[in-house]
Amino acid sequence: MSHMQIASSQDERCDVLVIGGGPGGSTAATLLARRGYQVLLLEKNHHPRFHIGESLLPMNLPVYERLGVLEKIRAMGVYKPGADFEASNESGYKTYAFARALGNSPPHAFQVWRQDFDKMLFEHARENGVDAREGAEVVAVEQHGARETYVDVRTEDGDSYRVQTRYLLDASGRDAFLASKKKIRHKNPRHQSAAIFAHFRNAEYRPGNDAGNISLYNFEYGWMWMIPLPNGVMSVGAVCRPDYLKQRRGRNHEFLYETLKLNPALWKRVQNAQLVGDEVRVTGNYSYDSSTIGGAGWMLVGDAFAFLDPVFSSGVYLATSGAEQTAVIVDAVLNDPSRETHLQQRLEKRLRKGMRSFAFFIYRFNSPVMRNLFQHPRNTWKVEQGVISMLAGDLFDSRPVWWRLQLFRVIYYISALLNLRGWYAEHCYRLAQAKTNFSSGTTPVDPA
User: Higher model confidence: residue 443 or residue 94?
Assistant: First the structure.
């Protein structure tokens, strides 16, 4: 990392410094401040700032209740009773209602404007005693010891200052500040995608109780989403292989419309809608991973550690749930440093287990066999309810859910073998993915 001068008596000091004022950073900062630590939270931008990831999971809600913000989220969000997937039935879709999940996950979630949601969490951290600063970018870090880290900060007006901290948390999101500096961040060779998306008014909602659902669609080059947001706005976009997105010419909104037309059922719901602000956004490769979650005196939180794909809206949940557990670890370590490695490894193992469960579905989501299973689910041995629990985010501590997901894997492979046409189409699909990964410079890996 960048060379820094020896610390002086004028340096600021804190117990914990958190990089990034998104959901993970604000959650960790709030919980550590409640435990009596002096916490500095640095956000390089100003709230509200745009962010993708508007759909929360039911398992988010217990975390927010413990954080003390659940009622604020209820007031700002759209009630989300489930997720639906395009299907060849009378209604044209299959609903997975969260109320049918196994275990104790809440029967609903919410969808939010992320700029308002993130701002609320940031201000909540400040209300709980966190020194929360905006327009403050971390530019360099140097460790002189496990509990002696120096952080260079640059302000938006060009000034700079230095902070000495006993512990450093990186919740910088996809910037992945520490992982990039330490060269431990790696593109995920199993799954690469990019997204193009916008917000619309007057898009067609699902009828009745399904009106707040997130809707998911497949198309030849990836998948698409529709997310109902407050004030009659619908978030609509497509996640696709990078090679498809590279084909776009001209203005982004023209390419978005061309893409949305590739799924007639989705296009029917948006063809008479109007763009909000005439702004179409594009974001690049989603999937990456870090070789470790932390070391002596530092840890990675949320997207700063790893991110797979937004198809099941897992990012915010993994960030806030992981941040809550990270706060417990930091507290324990600052009282007993000998436990640090064990506690970090245990959390990393837990998070990777959850991400693997999501990944099995993500890597195959666009395959013919997976599409058929989602369109025509069977609840034999409560497997369908286990899948709903996965969609709700309940895949860490529930053995009944874990066993159902293993059964689903068996059903998936049997279905692929019995349906030779489906198996052959999937085989071609996997080869196409491997070819895409190879041409982009990554190593093809079988994610089974």
Answer: 94
